[in-house]
Amino acid sequence: MNNQHLYLIALLPPATVTNQINNVKQAFSEKYLCYKALRTLPHLTLIPPIQSDTSFETHLFSLNDWIARQQTFTISLRNFNFFKNPQHPVVFIDVMKNALLNELYTGLRKQLKQYLPLAAKTPPFHPHFTVGYRDVPPQKFPEIMKDYAMQRFQANFEVKSIYLLKHNTREWKVFHEFPMGTANQETPGLQGSLFD
């Protein structure tokens, strides 16, 4: 299994919005002593972690033209919501409904099915930015929901790229950027750490 790697496909916000979300995550971690979510840079998951060999990289690069033809659009982040998982509840910043985001998600899954046996049945797509997960204590969750149901958050950003992230056994790193709305233009990749 040494030739297997973990990949994640996501949207990443610009630095200004990243800082806003990180401030929320920091405040949450200090108040409720939950630190797991601090380990990753804010991201909106399109395709959750996939284990594959490096042929996946080649297959995804072949989607460069398809991604370049996708329209850029703006998404809006509004307030907080919750996944009420009994063992591992989740607190997150919600993303307002967006037809273009849903179309991008659906189209990307359709393209990837050419190369990967994606599960036919998946949970409904609920785009979000995680604030707390994994170490959120279930016994404190009712208090947390009451607290964050009254708090407000607002941010917007333009989605201009899809990002391929690759896990290096210690952390997720940005392996490649796929710019959108750039058909017939050169689309160079980008490498860098999620923690840069």
Structure description:
The chain is α+β, with helices and mostly antiparallel strands and 196 residues long. The chain has a single domain (5-193), classed as Alpha-Beta Complex (Cyclic Phosphodiesterase, Chain: A). The chain contains 5 helices and 9 strands. The protein has helices spanning 15-32, 55-61, 64-68, 99-112, 141-149, and strands at 5-11, 44-52, 73-83, 90-95, 128-132, 154-159, 161-167, 172-179, 192-193. The strands form 2 sheets. It has a 5-stranded antiparallel beta sheet with strand order 2-1-7-8-9. Strand 3 (73-83) and strand 4 (90-95) form a beta hairpin. It is globular, with a radius of gyration of 17 Å. It starts with a strand and ends with a strand.
Q: What is the fold-level CATH name, i.e. the topology?
A: Cyclic Phosphodiesterase, Chain: A
What proportion of the residues is helical, as a percent range? 25-40%
Number of strands: 9
Mean pLDDT: 89
Q: What's the overall geometry?
A: globular
- Please, how many domains? 1
Strand order of the largest sheet: 2-1-7-8-9
Q: What do we call the CATH homologous superfamily? A: Cyclic phosphodiesterase
Question: Topology, pairings included?
Answer:
Elements: E1 5-11, H1 15-32, E2 44-52, H2 55-61, H3 64-68, E3 73-83, E4 90-95, H4 99-112, E5 128-132, H5 141-149, E6 154-159, E7 161-167, E8 172-179, E9 192-193
Antiparallel strand pairs: 1-2, 1-7, 3-4, 3-6, 4-5, 7-8, 8-9
